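Worked example 2:
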Amino acid sequence: MNASKKPSTKIAGRPKKVTHQQIIDAALFTMEQEGFKSLSLRALARQLGINHATLYNYVDNIEAVERDALSALMKRIPVPDKNNPQPLRQQLIEHLLAVRKTQIVYPKFCHAPAGTSAWKIHMRCLVRVQQACCENDEQLEDVAIAYNALIGLIATNAERTRTTGRTVPIQADIEAIAALPRDEFEPLFRPLVQNGKYSLRISSFVHRLDYLISCLIPHLPPIDDELLISMQALVSE
């Protein structure tokens, strides 16, 4: 995901006019640089290069700006839909990968406090995933638990990608495991001895998501391995 473009802060002469799109871009840039809680009228005005009092001519309250900015953010994240001809499992994986991209740029996105605008977006995503992936009401809680567990994995992977600078952070673990004493960590090496390598559900993040979906939402039909490989290639770019 491309980071938000920094708004111009140049001031010349009389107070400049700002558009709604410029306000949203400034809000996204502020949240990207300083976190969701940092968004305020003063911070927004500073990014726009205007006096915060002037900003009142354009903005009634910061909550409305936050809602609009988060709505713009959510347009980058596809959500599973039963009416979409693509397999639901593929749609769910693509949704999770888009959340991961967002989490890399906005580290607080998946950890929004309950009741906040960002938290409400997560709840809307959850409801839409339930509507798409549940065949009956008995599966509602199962899918909710599964979705939250998958989001937890997504958030952790995104954070490790941010901190390691590696698009596939599991490779750092695999390389570090190779340096461990084999006698002490023998179970970690057993798959390597038996198979010559780790399975794709270990080395490929997309295959790991697919494996967990099979465990947590087993009624979703499987998809072709070639499709999983193509999605993993996008993650690894």
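The chain has a mean pLDDT of 87. The chain has two domains: 20-73, 76-236.
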